[in-house]
Amino acid sequence: MKVSVIGAGYVGLVTGACLADKGIEVICVDKDPEKVRKINDGIPPIYEEGLGAILKKRIGNTICAATDLQGSVLDSDITMVAVGTPFDGKEIDLAQVKDVSAQIGRALKGKNGYHAVIVKSTVVPGTTDEVVLPILEEASGKRAGRDFGVGMNPEFLTEGQAVADFMKPDRIVLGANDEKTLSLLERLYDAFDGTPILKTNSKTAEMIKYASNAMLATQISFANELAGLCSALGGMDVVDVMKGVHLSGYLRPAAKDGSRVQAPISSFLEAGCGFGGSCLPKDVKALISHGEKAGTKMGLLNAVIDVNRRQLLEVVRLLGKHFASMNGIRVTVLGLSFKPDTDDMRESPAIPVIRDLLSRGAVVKVFDPVAIHEARKVFASDPLIYCETLEYALADTDAAILVTRWEQFNRVPEMLAKASPDAVFVDGRRMLDKRSFSRYEGIGL
Ligand SMILES: NC(=O)c1ccc[n+]([C@@H]2O[C@H](COP(=O)([O-])OP(=O)(O)OC[C@H]3O[C@@H](n4cnc5c(N)ncnc54)[C@H](O)[C@@H]3O)[C@@H](O)[C@H]2O)c1
Fold first, then answer.
1. What's the pLDDT tens digit per position in 42-57?
2. pLDDT tens, position by position, 198-239
3. How far is residue 330's CA from residue 361's CA, in Å, rounded to a whole number?
4. Is residue 4 lining ligand 1, measured as CB closer than 6 Å?
5. What does the angle CA 132 – CA 133 – CA 137 come to, to the nearest 5 degrees?
6. Does residue 318 sit in the same domain as residue 196?
7. What is the per-residue pLDDT for 277?
8. CB distance 280 to ligand 1 below 6 Å
9. What is the spatial distance between Cα 122 and Cα 287, in angstroms, rounded to a whole number?
């Protein structure tokens, strides 16, 4: 079986590399020739633990990259669509999905034998059957379900641990409306023995992805709303409150031997400076808009977004308690990526925080272990001071704001005490012990 993956971004490249590592032949297709060149040289164009090692091992063997979409479709049995599906401010933007669907359809025109087209991008319920399928049929002149198959296979990987997630998935959701496509998909995932597989229709598969992300975003905003309440009421710390909540048997179920295991969902039930990234904000907003278009009042998810919008600037408000004006104040922002172990800055909470600080006239220094090159693109015209080392970032500063929970930041208390002992420290992730700072502010304290 040979697979072509269209879109060699976080999802497409990780999917392609992991399938190739399992022995499946893969062609990763991207319109960006620079990405394609890098992949063929064995260099991952994104930072993701373990990806480089797989590419080095498998390139030219079970995986290659190409810009030729139609040739790659003709040369494969399954095509997975993994292009971007941004939110355009009003609704999901399906331009990339539509564009590649038309190109795949044109390729299918000249293809002998059955071919399955599988949507891996996150798309609102109905897209695969009502948008992708008709485009494929029109461009190919063929019939779905008879001449080719159409399906949906959402991706649940988490950036920063994408390779590990893909290799050991918690579930595999396969959506299709015909048995032939479903069984082809099952064969594709044969090597992932022991993983629960849910077979359903494409629309349900699409909804499962949104339901999963909306649930995670809801936990975060719930914890953040409680953080705001703890601050307002005073005399308590949201960290202690959530610790008590995490001890619940629902979050620490008992194993057969009586021991208890903390459910990973607990990590979403923690106060912080809000969620970001390429998925949660856009997916929740796209689901709200899709639901409202269908006449459903999306009250809860609208509130999730509202809480998050306010939360993004809470760290600046906390800093403001120490300075009448921020004009000319030197502030170090620690962490730029939306979460640790990735260089992805899409919708990172660091962006509104930095922009707000700059608008108040602060002199902003930034440090991140891997996302500096991405930050230079985002803040191309802003006067940021980019720091190569944590030491330099913490020297001669009036304040430091921790935005991303990078492990390296465990050294901050000791380093800040030496480099800038009078600096105010604002912990946007409640990561460090408040007692290790002379001037401390934290979310939900
Ligand atoms: N990033 C994640 O953690 C994650 C997790 C699960 C699902 N998703 C979903 O997966 C999809 C892809 O997300 P991503 O983060 O990998 O996006 P990305 O922006 O990193 O990658 C998309 C790639 O598609 C390429 N592309 C766009 N149009 C193309 C075309 N016409 N031909 C060939 N290549 C084309 C782009 O050059 C880019 O490399 C989205 O729908 C996203 O919501 C993302």
1. 999 998 999 999 999 9
2. 999 999 999 999 999 999 999 999 999 999 999 999 999 999
3. 10
4. no
5. 120
6. no
7. 95
8. no
9. 11
16 and 101 in a single domain? The answer is: yes
Domain-located, residue 359:
yes
Rounded CA gap, 97 and 168, in Å?
A: 27
207 within domain boundaries: no
SS3 content of the chain, % helix, strand, coil (to 5): 45, 15, 40
Residues 279 and 402 sit within 8 Å (Cβ to Cβ): no
7 lines ligand 1 (CB under 6 A): yes
pTM of the model: 0.94
- Model confidence over 245-281: pLDDT tens digits? 999 999 999 989 999 999 999 999 999 999 999 999 9
Owner of token pair 């409202």: 292
Probe residue for ligand 1, chosen from 29, 30, 91 as the CB with the greatest number of ligand atoms within 8 Å = 30
> What are φ and ψ of residue 330, in 5° steps?
-90, 115
Query: Is residue 296 domain-shared with residue 257, that is, in the same domain?
Result: yes
State pLDDT tens for residues 125-177: 999 999 999 999 999 999 999 999 999 999 999 998 999 999 999 999 999 99
Q: Domain with 259 in it: what CATH number?
A: 3.40.50.720
Give the residue numbers marked as catalytic: 279
Q: Is residue 437 part of a domain?
A: yes
Which of 311, 346, 361 is at the close of a domain?
Answer: 311
Please give the span between the terminal C-alpha atoms of the chain, in angstroms, as a whole number: 56
Domain that holds residue 273: 212-311
Nearest residue (CA) to ligand 1, atom 12: 84
CB distance 77 to ligand 1 below 6 Å: no
pLDDT-based confidence at residue 114 (cuts at 50, 70, 90): very high
**Mean pLDDT of the chain, nearest integer:** 97
Statement to judge: residues 17 and 59 lie in one domain: yes
Note whether residue 205 is domain-resident: no
* DSSP code for 328: T
What is the sign, positive or negative, of the torsion defined by CA atoms of 265, 267, 273, 275? negative
Ligand 1 mean position to 120 CA, how many Å? Answer: 9
With a 6 A CB cut-off, is 96 part of the ligand 1 pocket?
yes
Q: From atom 11 of ligand 1, which residue's Cα is the shortest distance away?
A: 121
Q: For position 33, what pLDDT does the model report?
A: 98
* Number of folded domains that form the chain: 3
Domain check: are 419 and 324 in the same one?
Answer: yes
Both 305 and 354 in one domain: the answer is no
Please check whether residues 223 and 330 belong to one and the same domain.
Answer: no
Are 339 and 227 contained in the same domain?
Answer: no
The CA distance from 5 to 12, in Å, is 6
